[in-house]
Structures are given as structure tokens and as C-alpha cells.
């Protein structure tokens, strides 16, 4: 049988969410209701322009269209075709029930026994645990904590082997909120092209870039726009678009071969996606709604990030960070007299004392070894709730932090 490592972040969330009063480690921004989504449209809502069109109420709910709702595939293809000389064909977009299944299908299409895979790290555990379970050799390309989670391209060059099959990146990065800049992405593509390697980019947080302007020359484009066909990306409605409940994600590639392999795995897993979910996604990504939805989430992220930054400045004696540039999460390090705390114990003690739930970095993102003292904070929630949570955490730091053990080496 295939053996795979426990999915630590999901196990942690499943165990402790029911016990928490304040869940502050979600990787999604504040979810939106369908009524709120309607209110963001620049066009009047009508029977044809609605998250759930009236026509669906009288339609038989068969399986969805193979590959996905044509309107949704065309809209996503258009988003990836901006500022590119060759538009992405809609047939090269495959709709999936969320990004996790999308990643599952991509990884099974790309990885196998005897392959060597390089993975940007830290990242969502799925991106390295599935290749390992499939028998691939995985090398972790570590971003630098001391350099705001930047990566070393020269180090990447030295990691390439004759059997290197894929370079897997996560941009923006979970759990740090850091980005791979345009120049870094261009270097990755150049290295991949020279060596005939596939680049897989998990872009679920795109385009939630709250702290860098599109006018910045280092603003990161999707790797699909960098002129290399041997690239595949995943995306989702859950993160940047605040719709985790509709379970819609996608796979996109300019390579017909990669899409064909993913379609084959799609047949073994999802088959199709709910027509209701796809309709809501198509409405949210429509040009009349999309920009208002992204503005809503970026504005909330900026406002809450400023509040979190003030908290960290106030408690510099206990915590530090590299301020996120994008996404909905921050990786905050807690320490005592220069020594990292036991982040698992800290999260459990904080939960017991104040009902506040964070995700411990070493357990959920570091294989139990790396990122001791770090916790993932999901700060793009209701502003008033974030303020209340940080007040409670501040109380704990002042009242009970002395009881938190330091991490063992």
C-alpha cells in the first residue's frame, strides 16, 4: 500500500477548531456571502447574471461539463492571458473541486518513482508529501528566514540532478506571506528551460498582493506568462476570492501533454465539479465583480496587517516577523531571551488560557524540526475580531508567557 505522512496542518485544525473560541489560523480571507457577492457587481443582478442563475433551478443537476463550465474556463483563461503575446486556450484550463484536488492531480501527473523533485520551502505540506509518497526523491529549496523568506537562485542551480523532473513553488508563499519576485521567477524559468524541467506553481493566493503594487518592476506575474510552455499552475476560489465553501479550483497549463495527464487523473478523482459551485465561481470572476472583490480583500488585509504590525511592535520582547507582502497569513516567531519557544506547547497553552487558536510552525510546516517558535496567524478576518484576539494574546504574554517552555534543540 502507498504510505503517506500525516497531513499535520489539517490534523491540527480538525482537532483544535472545535475547542477554540477564536480561530486565527485560517489561510482564507473573511468568507463572503452570496448576497454580499451580488452587492459587489457593477451590473444589475438578473436571472442570467447571478451567482446561482435562475435557469439552474429548473435544470436537471447532471454531472457538470467535462473539464468544467465553459464560461468559467474561458474567464480563467482570459485572466492568465493578460499581457501575454499568446492567449491561453480555454481547453487548457481544468476545473477541480478546490486547489487541494488540483494539486493532487498535478503531482500524480508529474511525479513518480525515481524522479527528483525540488520544492520551495516552507510550503503547504501536500506539495512535498505526495511526491515522497509516490516514490520521488524530494529536495527542499529553503527560503531564508533572515532574508525575509527570499530564495537563493544559485542554490537552486546546484540542486539540479540528471533526474530532476519538476521544480515546485508556492507564490505567494504559505505560511509566510512572502513572494517570489519577477526577477526570481524569470531565473527559475531560465534554469528550468535549460534543463528541460517542469515548473509547477501553486498560485492559490494570487492575486491577493496587498503590499506591493502592480507598477513595481518586481511585482510577480503568474509563471504562465513567462514564455515557457512546460509550466503548470493551480488556483482556487478559496483564498484570494473568499469563497472556500463553493469548492472550486483549477489547473492551467500551456502544455497540452500536462493537461492531458491531469485530465486522466481527474477522471479517477473528481470527474466533474458541482454546477452550482461553478456558477458562483463564474459570477465572482466576472469583470463586473472581480475587481471589487479583490479590492474588498486587499483593503481588509492592509487594515488588519497594520493592526497586527502594531501588536508585534508592542511585544517585540516576545515576537518578531518578516512582514508579509501578500496572502492572508503571517509567520510570527515567539521567543524568550533569544531562545525560540516550544511553538506546539505555546499554541496549546494559549488555547487553554484564552481560547485563541494558532497553528504551530514546527508541527504544521516544519516536519517537527524546522521553524521552532513560529506560528501561522490568519489575520484577514473581521477587524474587530482580530483586535479582540490580539488583546487576549497580549494578556497571555503578560500573564502566562513565563510558563511556556523553550524549544528543545
UniProtKB/TrEMBL annotation:
- Gene Ontology molecular-function annotations: catalytic activity; pyridoxal phosphate binding
Note whether Lyase occurs among the keywords.
no
Q: Where is the Aminotransferase class I/classII large domain?
A: 56-391
The lineage's top-level taxon is Eukaryota
Q: SUPFAM superfamilies under this entry?
A: PLP-dependent transferases (SSF53383)
Q: What InterPro entries does the annotation carry?
A: Aminotransferase_I/II_large, NHTrfase_class1_PyrdxlP-BS, PyrdxlP-dep_Trfase, PyrdxlP-dep_Trfase_major, PyrdxlP-dep_Trfase_small
**Entry-linked CDD domains:** AAT_like
Q: Which Gene3D superfamilies match?
A: Aspartate Aminotransferase, domain 1, Type I PLP-dependent aspartate aminotransferase-like (Major domain)
Record keywords, A-Z: Pyridoxal phosphate
> To which protein family does this belong?
Belongs to the class-I pyridoxal-phosphate-dependent aminotransferase family.
**Can you say what this protein is called?**
Aminotransferase class I/classII large domain-containing protein
Q: Source organism lineage? A: Eukaryota, Fungi, Dikarya, Ascomycota, Pezizomycotina
Amino acid at each position: 500500500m502507498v504510505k503517506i505522512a500525516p497531513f499535520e496542518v489539517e490534523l491540527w485544525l480538525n482537532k483544535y477548531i472545535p475547542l477554540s473560541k477564536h480561530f486565527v489560523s485560517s489561510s482564507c480571507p473573511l468568507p463572503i456571502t452570496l448576497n454580499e457577492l451580488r452587492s459587489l457587481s457593477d451590473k444589475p443582478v438578473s436571472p442570467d447574471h447571478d451567482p446561482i442563475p435562475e435557469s439552474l433551478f429548473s435544470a436537471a443537476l447532471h454531472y457538470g461539463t467535462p473539464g468544467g463550465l465553459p464560461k468559467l474556463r474561458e474567464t480563467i483563461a482570459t485572466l492568465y492571458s493578460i499581457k501575454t503575446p499568446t492567449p491561453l486556450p480555454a481547453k487548457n484550463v481544468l476545473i477541480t473541486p478546490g486547489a487541494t484536488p488540483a494539486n493532487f492531480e498535478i503531482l500524480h501527473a508529474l511525479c513518480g518513482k525515481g524522479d527528483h523533485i525540488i520544492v520551495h520551502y516552507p510550503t503547504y505540506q501536500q506539495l512535498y508529501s505526495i511526491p515522497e509518497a509516490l516514490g520521488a526523491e524530494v529536495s527542499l529549496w529553503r527560503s531564508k528566514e533572515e532574508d525575509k523568506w527570499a530564495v537563493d537562485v544559485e542554490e537552486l542551480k546546484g540542486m539540479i540532478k540528471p533526474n530532476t523532473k519538476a521544480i515546485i513553488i508556492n507564490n505567494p508563499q504559505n505560511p509566510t506571506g512572502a513572494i517570489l519576485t519577477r526577477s526570481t521567477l524569470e531565473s527559475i524559468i531560465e534554469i528550468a528551460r535549460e534543463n528541460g524541467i517542469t515548473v509547477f506553481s501553486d498560485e492559490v493566493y494570487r492575486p491577493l498582493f496587498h503590499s506591493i503594487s502592480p507598477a513595481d518592476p518586481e511585482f510577480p506575474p503568474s509563471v504562465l506568462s513567462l514564455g515557457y510552455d512546460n509550466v503548470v499552475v493551480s488556483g482556487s476560489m478559496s483564498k484570494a476570492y473568499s469563497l472556500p465553501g463553493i469548492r472550486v479550483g483549477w489547473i492551467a497549463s500551456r502544455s497540452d501533454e500536462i493537461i492531458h495527464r491531469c485530465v486522466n487523473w481527474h477522471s479517477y478523482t473528481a470527474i466533474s465539479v458541482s454546477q452550482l459551485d461553478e456558477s458562483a465561481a463564474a459570477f465572482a470572476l466576472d469583470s463586473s465583480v472581480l475587481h471589487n472583490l479583490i479590492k474588498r480583500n486587499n483593503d481588509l488585509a492592509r487594515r488588519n496587517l497594520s493592526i497586527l504590525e502594531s501588536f508585534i511592535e508592542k511585544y517585540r520582547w516576545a515576537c518578531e516577523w518578516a512582514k508579509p507582502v501578500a496572502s492572508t497569513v503571517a509567520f510570527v516567531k515567539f521567543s524568550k531571551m533569544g531562545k525560540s519557544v516550544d511553538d506546539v506547547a505555546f499554541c496549546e497553552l494559549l488555547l487553554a488560557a484564552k481560547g485563541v487558536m494558532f497553528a504551530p510552525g514546527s508541527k504544521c510546516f516544519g516536519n517537527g524540526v524546522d521553524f521552532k517558535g513560529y506560528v501561522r496567524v490568519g489575520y484577514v478576518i473581521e477587524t474587530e475580531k482580530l483586535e479582540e484576539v490580539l488583546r487576549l494574546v497580549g494578556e497571555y504574554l503578560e500573564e502566562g508567557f513565563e510558563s511556556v517552555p523553550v524549544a528543545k534543540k
